[in-house]
## 1
Amino acid sequence: MVIYFLLFPMIAMIYLMTLLLRQKAQIQKTIFCVLTFGTLGFISASRASSVGTDVTLYENIFKSINYGMSAENNLGYVIYNKLIGNVFGYTGHEITAANSVLITILIGFFIWKVAEHYFVATFLYISLFYYATSFNISRQFIAMGLVLVAISFALDKKVMPWFILTVLATLFHATAIVAFPVYWLTKVHWDAKKTLGIFPITIFASFIFDDILNIFVRFLPHYEMYITGTQFNIADQGQGRVVLVKVFILFILLGLLLLYQKRYGLISERHHNIIALTTVGLSIGIVFYNNVLLNRVELFYSILSIVFIPIAIDYISLKFKEKDTVRLMLTIGILLITLVPYYIQVSGNYSGILPYTMNK
């Protein structure tokens, strides 16, 4: 278990080292992302099949695809598995290593491209349990990484890269289809009321969810496995506790909107979009907290919390005279608070990541 907590001093030392290099800010950021995500990728790629509840399943799928015996119907993932198998062989661990490297490259690129406070964003990527979760739902995390990179282009108003990457994500995991509204959401002129309005819309959707679900499952029947009767099983998801993390982030959002409800124009358009997209994830995650399928869906949006939180801290601290001191205190306080649920999730072995052992 110790290795998962050593990640924090490790990224702190890398961050301090980059600052001591006294290079241009962008060069420091690049060095930090390469070293940090290179290390995170190595740790993930080197793990044994027992580290993560889904690892053996993915390795078996990988072998069955390369032996021509798989019923896997996500074309992009099949081609990707074939490519890895043809280049590196297909004893099993090759796909675990490849998935780990690809995920960390995509997440690292997103943070490099979008995060203004890249150390805080990386810390939150770990402390909000996204890194550990990637040990399990690897295929979805590849899709999420592609969607995040697509979002980075949508924020820059670059339609074609956003579209191509989003389509590619759906070829790895069908639930990535929920990311298609992203570009149009970035076209909305957001204010505090519209942002908060996402919650009542989500609540209304919960009343007609069965009808929406029937349409969804009709087109994507293999996701019916997430349904048990009319409800979803949350026993193995830990969502009853994880939702508290989302409520905590919601309080940060409400604090930001309360302080800027009449002066929302002071927040940049780019930040408006990041705040709105994060709110979509929070609303789905809270309203549908006990719904396994929508827990998967909301991850595509809620992972944006890692860049939203430092943005919110910046704007909130501007309301105080000693803004630098307030920013530092808020950052330290929030990061420490996120370590509490992180400890609970790691020690409770939520994703089957204990004990960590290396592949032999």
Note: Residues 150 and 164 are 8 Å apart (CA to CA).
## 2
Amino acid sequence: MEKDIGAIKQIIETSQSAGLILEKGVGEEFFLAKETLKTALLLKNTALISLPYETPAYAQKWMSFLTKEGAPVPQKISINIPKKKYPVKELKYDEDDDYFSLLVTVQGTNFNKDDLIFKETLPKTDSIFYFCRNFDFEKLNHFKTLIEIPEKEKIILIKPGEETVGEKVFEIIDSLGFDNEILKTSHLPTLLFAAVFKETDGFKNISQGALRLAARLLELGADKEATENIFNQDKTPVFWQMLGRALARTAVDQNLQSSWTFLSKKDFEKHGAEPKEEFLLAILKEISRTVSSQTFSLILWQTPSQNAFNPNNEVKDEIWAAIKSANSVKLDFLAAELQTKNQNGCLKAGPFKTFSEAEIQLRKALKSAIF
């Protein structure tokens, strides 16, 4: 499913329809990259289905740049007739100004309309683009109730690696040979510029390839000012209040070259904030800038478990941790120790039952990474 650009171009050129699937829980940069590819495929008049159907919360702020859906993937309904009960002599199709009609002639028995079984078949596309952090076929299979998954040869993975997600999407778009003037008249450059901006933390952790892409997108008319203004909207008074509270709960451990921030459920309740991962990663980035002398910055937070309940039907809490570092070698080593992945300079660990359990395990992993 990891394919070279030539194979991907061939799949697109031979596909009249495509599915765009966003893995649950991935960040805003993935959504922006998906919307960029959607814009490009619509320019090629490809019929599309985009999943999940629910619009991510951050989509609202990009609404003015999103392309409206084009031609939908055709839907099919099957009408089933019991063969043994009704020997069919003839089938005819007819239509008038108001209805399409299927005329069924059966032999030797009266037809009961209640025996008809109507089934809506799942939409089927010629190919699927799956935007994910780490490919897991089981996660893709979760969408089997919404779309018919094609053979693996027609599934294209869009996930970060040596290149950002934005770079991978632009490589696909560039291979399709669009005229620059067509791209300039669309919102495609701005959407992809925003994806790269988000994925590289405002161009603070950027490779030469991503930097060249950002410059190219600006040449194509990407709206840099609008992008920065939209992202700045994220930092509301609640954000700054929680950042102040987080800094007050931050301690430095020189031996482990790290800063530690702990946020309990009461901290979130006090400021009316929700313990969402993206919100906490933004806070962690600000903390790492403030305590820049340390190799690692950690933030640990308490959040309700999504699936654990005690016998009294009370929701249990669990502890998660996010760790940020500019030292990719040590962060990769730490990720291996914690059996997680380095995602653009950050990694996530958990769940833990208590703050104490989390701290013990994280300190043990840090010692291995440093020494």
Note: Residues 242 and 270 are 9 Å apart (CA to CA).
## 3
Amino acid sequence: MIKLFTWYCLLNKRSLKNYSYIVLFLLLPLLAFSLRIISLRDSSVLKVGLYTDAGSGLSKDIIEELTKEDSIINFIEYQDEDSAYEDLQVKLDALWILPDDLEGAINNNLYKRKHIVKVIEARKSSILGISREKLFAKLYPYISKALYKKYMKEKFTYLQDNKEGEKELDEYYEARKTEDDIIEFVSLDGDVYVEKKSDKSFLLSPLRGFLAIWLFLIAMISAMFYKKDVDAGLWVWIDRRLKAAFSFLYILSITSTAALILLVAIYVSGLGIALYKEVMSLFSYVLALALVSNILRAIFNNIYIYSAFIPVILIVSVILSPIFIDLSRPLLQCTVPVYHYINSIYTLSGLYKMFAYIGILVPLHLILVRS
């Protein structure tokens, strides 16, 4: 164990003599910190003005809730209706005017096709349409029960004027949760594996993908420099039977150091989840990268050809990984280590697939890598 640690230190010390590694290592936390600062500023996608004449009551409560939410929609409360209308053409995307007595308006117009909240939009867009879901979510608890009972009685006429049926409907409704948002961001495994994030935090989500691409670049550069050392006759004294394992450990040691910097960058940027989950996924990813990079080195077997293909490999990785969009082509995507890393963070099944991916890479490494 002491010998392994000594080798780890020596290989990293040697790599740090290369200025390109130092620049790559230092730029990453700086980039993450800069993006974090930018994200803390006004990064709202939409600005929506809110106004009501009411000094208190349901309308005022809803406005206070919306303005306090950490959201990609910036809600601004106005004390004067005229000012709100003026700003609608200047800095607001939409204006919502809530009635004085919102609760009374809901009860009086529940079954009528009448407007309760006045919504004025500066332009027509699908994003503004989605933003109204925030308003629906706030009104939903006050109208859901009555609408549910109305729908059930219309669909099943025997429930009308039926006290037992009325009681059954009430019990069924009370047993269901209606407090959650209509639209929310969750992982595929719900809250079992990954903590629920606010919608604003998802603005930084592509950063994790780019960090993963950066680490892939480090691993391939390490494999390239190993090939350069081999061609220079630097490792001739190592037993031929151990060269495949040594080349893997060479790449693994440098990539592991870079992974520690990546881990810091993730928490600096505010993307970090529970530490043990981050470490588990990142450790698996580093193993996969060391194996893939070494296999690619053995396939190309030429430092110049390998270096020429690195940009192509990274571009393909960006396209196939769910950094901006998910192509939903798992048979293609499963060949890319970045795809498995991102999924292993957000789903438990993704972590198991990462283990399976490593299990496939190990025999390929044993077959293809000879030095």
Note: The radius of gyration is 28 Å.
